[in-house]
Amino acid sequence: MTSLNDGFVFVDEITQGIRWDAKYATWDNFTGKPVDGYLANRIVGTTALCAALDKARIQAESLGFGLLLWDGYRPQRAVDCFLRWSRQPEDGRTKPRHYPNINRTEMFEKGYVAAKSGHSRGSTVDLTLYHLESGELAAMGGDHDLMDPVSHHGARGIGALETRNREHLCSIMEASGFRRYDCEWWHYTLEEEPYPDTYFDFPIGY
Question: How much is the pTM?
Answer without folding.
Answer: 0.96
